[in-house]
Backbone:
């Protein structure tokens, strides 16, 4: 069978692209999930889309292929190319162009029988024409109606079909910004492809922090957004990376909100888990499939509950390690008279906390959050200026002081935390 860059199942290539780009350390022999031939085929597909970004290094374990993308120079997410390589059958593509030729204007409407007649006429000149029955054509038209390509209109007992009118396309810069920053941004990229003209596409935007791997989760996000719009529960099939990568776990949840980290671009689903009766987060890059379940009658109530929780979320963790509902954290920093930017930084980065200026060179930060351990990486950036710190969760405070002791040991300093 000849190799083809087109794909049927995006989830499989999603796993390979993530391994190449995010990890980039596995050699051909280390891919045990599939055969070596399967690895070669997927690598060729990625190479056909992202060839200029692919590199390799040789180690003792063998040749490792990885993707290297400099987002300072790459203004358009190269991963979008994978979404535009969907495979199709000969029948699909033939029927598509036949229908688009028949329904070539929004003004003309045709019944199914009239469309069938025109299809038969169009295929008469072929030596071995592909035949389509009315059931197949009706299903394809129904699919196009759901996609907004075709509209259906009932006249008596007969359904008439016409091409949907063209929607207004937003300014190219708006589409560019949407495609590179929003979940499911590949939609904006496809619209840009439709409007793009050679030599006319001036680029006005560049991104300092360009998080491109989120597009690999677009299909998952689209399903979750659809479930939220319909106020429906779902069953998530997720990778269990705590054990073996091939293992999966199924969880019945009510999806409520998608949250995106401004630090690393990682996307999370906030969902209510009926089994444990609480809201928790799920990394979307760990979710492999979404199965729709029944309508959730108390969806609005759960959504309001999540909104009430947001003022006390530093990240996405909704439960403290101590088991208490809320944890308090407070620290004081001192800086020189020329370092007023420290106070401004506290104000800018405080999120759900509060900042109080004690005097001209001293400020205090405090917050009540569900999980104070999420603040530790941020608090550590003030270590040289912290004069006092308190955590209501003793385990988090112990961890902070242990980290400080290790820091003193690494640099051979005396007078570490006692």
Residues:
């Amino acid at each position: 069978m000849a190799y083809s860059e087109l794909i049927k199942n995006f989830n499989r290539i999603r796993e390979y692209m993530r391994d190449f780009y995010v990890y980039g350390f596995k050699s051909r022999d280390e891919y045990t999930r599939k055969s070596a031939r399967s690895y070669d085929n997927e690598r060729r597909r990625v190479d056909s889309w992202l060839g200029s970004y692919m590199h390799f290094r040789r180690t003792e374990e063998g040749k490792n292929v990885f993707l290297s993308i400099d987002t300072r120079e790459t203004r358009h997410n190269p991963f979008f190319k994978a979404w535009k390589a969907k495979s199709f059958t000969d029948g699909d593509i033939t029927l598509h162009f036949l229908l688009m030729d028949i329904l070539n204007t929004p003004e003309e409407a045709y019944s199914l029988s009239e469309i069938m007649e025109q299809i038969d006429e169009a295929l008469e000149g072929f030596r071995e024409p592909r035949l389509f029955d009315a059931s197949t054509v009706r299903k394809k038209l129904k699919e196009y109606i759901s996609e907004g390509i075709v509209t259906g209109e009932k006249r008596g007992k007969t359904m008439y079909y016409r091409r949907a009118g063209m929607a207004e396309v937003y300014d190219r810069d708006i589409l560019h910004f949407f495609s590179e920053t929003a979940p499911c941004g590949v939609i904006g990229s496809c619209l840009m492809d439709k409007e793009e003209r050679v030599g006319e596409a001036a680029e006005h935007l560049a991104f300092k922090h360009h998080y491109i791997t989120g597009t690999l989760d677009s299909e998952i996000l689209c399903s979750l957004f659809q479930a939220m719009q319909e106020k429906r529960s779902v069953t998530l099939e997720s990778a269990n990376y705590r054990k073996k990568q091939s293992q999966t776990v199924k969880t019945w949840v009510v999806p409520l909100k998608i949250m995106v980290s401004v630090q690393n671009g990682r996307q999370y689903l906030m969902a209510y888990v009926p089994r444990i009766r609480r809201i928790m987060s799920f990394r979307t890059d760990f979710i492999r499939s979404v199965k729709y379940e029944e309508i959730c009658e108390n969806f609005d109530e759960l959504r309001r509950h999540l909104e009430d929780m947001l003022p006390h979320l530093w990240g996405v963790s909704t439960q403290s390690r101590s088991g208490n509902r809320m944890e308090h954290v407070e620290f004081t920093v001192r800086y020189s008279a020329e370092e007023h930017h420290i106070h401004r930084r506290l104000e800018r980065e405080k999120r759900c906390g509060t900042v109080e200026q004690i005097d001209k060179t001293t400020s205090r930060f405090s917050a009540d959050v569900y999980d104070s351990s999420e603040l530790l990486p941020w608090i550590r950036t003030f270590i040289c200026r912290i004069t006092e710190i308190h955590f209501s969760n003793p385990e988090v405070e112990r961890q902070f002081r242990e980290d400080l002791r290790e820091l003193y040991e690494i640099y051979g300093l005396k007078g570490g935390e006692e």
Residues 337 and 361 are 6 Å apart (CA to CA). The radius of gyration is 27 Å. The first helix runs from residue 10 to 23.
